[in-house]
Write a structure and sequence with these properties.
Blueprint lengths: L18 E10 L2 E10 L1 E14 L5 E5 L3 E6 L5 E21 L6 E7 L34 E2 L35
Length: 184
């Protein structure tokens, strides 16, 4: 039978685990907002879909992104708790989310999606419809085909691309031989 012996310091294996504090991210009707009980300093969102995003962040916050990931962070050290993050046009779904506080500790988060309320839908499904063409879903004229970010000018220094030189690194290999069979 094994005997447990305390050998010194207890290691904290849960240091990367989320704090019990919580945040809610909601996205509905073209608006994505956060509501938290702690100060938020950074947000990373992995998403799927195509949309046009326009940031609504406070002064000192920056939003950057690509086709499936966006990151929002505070450059000036100003945290947020209850804030509209961005507005959007199109459809996307959050796949993964990382939110951190001023100590770079992960915050637990609940995603609140817009739920369809069938009682308030405008379409009728009565049998008086003679022409089923009236019931066909019309394609949106403004369907988003590519993820777009409408970013403000953050007044960051510009990089002169002409000064960046791509240098090709070449490596040379030398061989040595001791004169014996096999090249060793």
């Amino acid at each position: 039978m094994a005997k447990a012996v305390r050998t010194g310091k207890v290691k904290k294996f849960n240091r990367d685990m989320a704090k019990p504090s919580a945040a809610n991210i909601s996205f509905e009707e073209g608006v994505c907002a956060i509501d938290s009980n702690v100060d938020i300093m950074g947000i990373q969102i992995h998403f799927k879909g195509k949309a046009e995003f326009t940031p609504q962040l406070p002064e000192g916050w920056i939003l950057q992104g690509n086709n499936n990931k966006m990151i929002m962070f505070a450059l000036s050290g100003v945290p947020i708790q209850k804030q509209i993050l961005f507005t959007y046009n199109g459809e996307f779904d959050i796949r993964d989310l990382i939110i951190s506080d001023k100590n770079a500790t992960k915050i637990t988060c609940k995603i609140i999606r817009n739920k369809v309320d069938w009682d308030t839908q405008g379409e009728g499904f009565a049998s008086e419809y003679i022409y089923w063409d009236d019931m066909k879903i019309k394609k949106s004229e403004h369907k988003i085909k590519k993820t777009i970010y409408n970013l403000p000018d953050y007044n960051l220094p510009e990089v002169d691309k002409k000064q960046i030189k791509k240098q090709r690194r070449t490596r040379t290999a030398t061989t040595t031989s001791s004169g014996s069979i096999g090249g060793y």
